[in-house]
User: Which sequence fits this backbone?
């Protein structure tokens, strides 16, 4: 059922009673702006959403453990320690000007 904000103010108690049976859409200028649902309906959907989010997080953690990050350079620790990083090197144009 859909009801305007003005009507919902006047009929709040009956709107709450209807929300126990099914969600009630509240509109403003014929556009839905809110939904009134029973506490049981909300709790059930909130629990389902949390379970789904936790399941996704658990799968992501499993993938991170299975495919642990590697050094993207492919070099061992000694070689990567001796190598200069991009911010440590001089500019190519200034290097050639100094030589």
Assistant:
């Amino acid at each position: 059922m859909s009801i305007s904000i003005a009507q919902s103010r006047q009929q709040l108690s009956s709107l709450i009673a209807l929300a126990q049976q099914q969600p009630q859409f509240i509109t403003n200028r014929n556009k839905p702006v809110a939904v009134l649902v029973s506490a049981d309906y909300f709790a059930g959907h909130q629990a389902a959403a949390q379970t789904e989010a936790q399941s996704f997080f658990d799968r992501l953690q499993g993938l991170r453990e299975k495919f642990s990050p590697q050094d993207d350079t492919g070099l061992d620790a000694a070689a990567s320690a001796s190598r200069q990083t991009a911010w440590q090197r001089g500019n190519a144009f200034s290097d050639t000007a100094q030589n």
Q: What stands out?
A: The chain is about 55% helix and 15% strand. Residues 48 and 89 are 53 Å apart (CA to CA). The longest strand covers residues 31-36. The chain has a mean pLDDT of 79.
